[in-house]
Structure formats: structure tokens, C-alpha cells
Amino acid sequence: MQNNDLYQEAVKAKEKSFSPYSKFRVGAALLTKSGSVYTGCNIENSSYSLTICAERTALFKAVSEGEKSFSKILIVSDANDFISPCGACRQVISDLASDIEIILTNVQGEMQSKKVDDLLPFAFGKANLLTNRE
Ligand code: THU
pLDDT at position 133, please? Predict the structure, then answer.
């Protein structure tokens, strides 16, 4: 799957955004290593902190269907600036898909490719948990 196809999938997902509070629509398209695509949009809540971002929606959909290996996630919004995952999504991406390519886009359709370590250096992860200590 080409990045332009993934872009179109993310745009379609963005149309489903439920964002009555921020009016900021976000879509994500996640490509698995086996070639499947899972999409997500942001879903807001009147209790604002319960909002989920597009990136986590896509990842949680995929993981809940048994997916474990991810190749790329492409993110779209209506903004002129490149849309970049929030801190919570960076942590979730780091935990579930540490070697994924993260493709940021702007409303002109330009793309920038990032690795997890670019966005979340010195990340906390499962290796840091006390239960892993001998
Ligand atoms: N949002 C995302 O879905 N992904 C991002 O990368 C940044 C922010 C959502 C959360 C909220 O619904 C709206 O955008 C404004 O923060």
C-alpha cells in the first residue's frame, strides 16, 4: 500500500471524527506488516478528558482484532501545520509499535516521516517495570 492510499484512508476516517467541542477533526490510518489497514478518528466526550485521539482509536481497534505488527501510521487533520501525535498517543505508539513509521501530514497533503524515538526519546516502557527485575 502506497502512502497516498493510506492518506486517502485517513481522510475518510477524519470525516467520521466526533469533535463537537474542539471542532478539530483528526484521522489516522494504520498499516500492519501483513498489509491490513485499520483507521481511527478522534472521539470527544462532554467530560473532556475522556476524549480519545485518532491514533489510539486506530491502534486499539487493530490490537483488539489481534494485530501485533505494524508498519506505518499516517495522521491527517484540517490544519496547515503538520499534525503530530499528543504525548499520550506517543506513549501508546511506543509501547505497541516501537518500530513503526509515523507519517505526519498537513492539509496540503505534504508528508513528514518520523520514528518513535524522534517523537518520544528516552521513553518509559516495559523494560522499566519493576516486575521485570530479577
Ligand atoms: N487529537 C487527535 O486525535 N490526534 C492528535 O494527534 C492531536 C489531537 C484530537 C484530540 C481532540 O479531540 C482534538 O484533536 C483537539 O485536541
Answer: 65
Question: Is 29:39 a contact under the CB 8 Å cutoff?
Answer: yes
Q: How many CB atoms lie within 10 A of CB 43?
A: 16
Beta bridge partner(s), residue 104: 75, 112
What residues have CB less than 8 Å from 11, skipping those under 6 apart? 27, 76
Distance from the CA of 54 to the center of ligand 1, in angstroms? 7
The Å distance, Cα 130 to ligand 1 centre, comes to 32
Q: Please, are residues 93 and 102 in contact by the beta-carbon 8 Å criterion?
A: yes
Examine the pLDDT at 134 and tell me if it is beyond 80: no
Domain boundaries, given as residue ranges, for the chain:
3-132
Does the structural domain 3-132 have CATH classification 3.40.50.300?
Answer: no
* Residue where the block lists cell 524515538: 117
Ligand 1 pocket check for 43: Cβ under 6 Å: no
Question: What tens digit of pLDDT does each residue of 65-78 get?
Answer: 999 999 999 999 99
User: In the prediction, which pLDDT does 91 show?
Assistant: 98
